[in-house]
Description:
CATH architecture: 2-Layer Sandwich
Strand content: 35-45%
Amino acid sequence: xxxxxxxxxxxxxxxxxxxxxxxxxxxxxxxxxxxxxxxxxxxxxxxxxxxxxxxxxxxxxxxxxxxxxxxxxxxxxxxxxxxxxxxxxxxxxxxxxxxxxxxxxxxxxxxxxxxxxxxxxxxxxxxxxxxxxxxxxxxxx
Length: 141
């Protein structure tokens, strides 16, 4: 049986995969080719130190997952990156609790960078931190 953490991260990946034409990878290395609409790679991140409540014993996490967003284009990569970031925000805003699996999801703004690629169109990439607030009775998440 998967842990609470794994269940929530899988549900987040499934939610992000509803964005059309943009693959979502989970913990993968950057592939050699980036699809025209872009690519997302969800990293597990860090659950951090939990807060605790007693009676009943619960561990409260503010887990920081990381979503790498990558687009590649010679002409409109800024617009594609911006549109994809907006779609990510809209999808998350539509289901802030992942159908009740967690208390709240809060994406933060990315700090995009332009990366030259030898012999290919440049990349625009950024990491969007996604804070997952959830509680579990298992200290090992």
